[in-house]
Amino acid sequence: MPRVTLSAIVVLLAVAAVCVAPAQQLRVQNGAGDATRALYEQGCASCHGETAHGSEALAAPALAGQDRAYLEGQLSNFAQRRRGGDPRDSYGSQMTLFAQLLSDSDRQNLAAYLSSLPATQTPPTMTGNAARGRELYESCAACHGPSGEGGAGPRLTMLGDWYVYAQLRNYAASSRGYHEQDADGQNMAAIAATLNEAQSRDIAVYLSSPSSARGE
Q: How many CB atoms lie within 10 A of CB 103?
């Protein structure tokens, strides 16, 4: 996709409260590694935080330490509107605006940079039945790891209970996992549809519980 000017980016993303500097210009100024960090700082940090540990107030998940392939895949999903295209997903819509401005190499570099950052577990914000959540989570372990540490699917323990709960409900409502080319999302939507709100909460609470309680 052709590059756009800095002024055009600022105008386009003003509505979404995101400001992005063109990666090519940043590479000339700072070199490829510094450019990726600068691209994150100027395009992502206002929502996801300077250290990429997320913000509940902005509904922005933690990204630091997440699986590289998963991050790259999600940026691609946003760019292709396989995610963020449902009108009920206002935060996802903001991400599509940003992702569509990135080249393939930008997405690869951002994913590599974020996966290299140290992850921290987000403090619990919800109450629920963690023991029941652990039982319910057993059907998720094949993809997300025995304790939510990641595997074929993304790492969940670093996302925060509020985000896990919100996304399970989004999947259940088909505002996420709706696109025919999003096979993983469709699988998640089918699973989430079997969970009620209380069960979704319990899973989220379990995943945000201390590692010793999850058997790690």
A: 15
How many domains are there within the chain?
A: 2
Tell me the pTM.
0.83
CB 89 within 8 A of CB 175: yes
d(CA 148, CA 178) in angstroms, rounded, equals: 24
Co-location of 210 and 143 in the same domain: yes
Asked if residue 125 belongs to a domain, the reply is no
User: Is 29 found in the same domain as 55?
Assistant: yes
Helix (H) or strand (E) holding 116: helix 104-116
Q: Return the half-sphere exposure (C-beta side, CA atoms, 13 A cut-off) of residue 103.
A: 13
- If you write DSSP's letter for every residue of 43-83 in order, what string do you get? HTHHHH-TTS--BTTTTB---TT--HHHHHHHHHHHHTTSS
Q: What is the pLDDT of residues 55-112, one digit of tens each?
A: 999 999 999 999 999 999 999 999 999 999 999 999 999 999 999 999 999 999 999 9
Residue 92, domain member (yes or no): yes
Q: Is position 159 within any domain?
A: yes
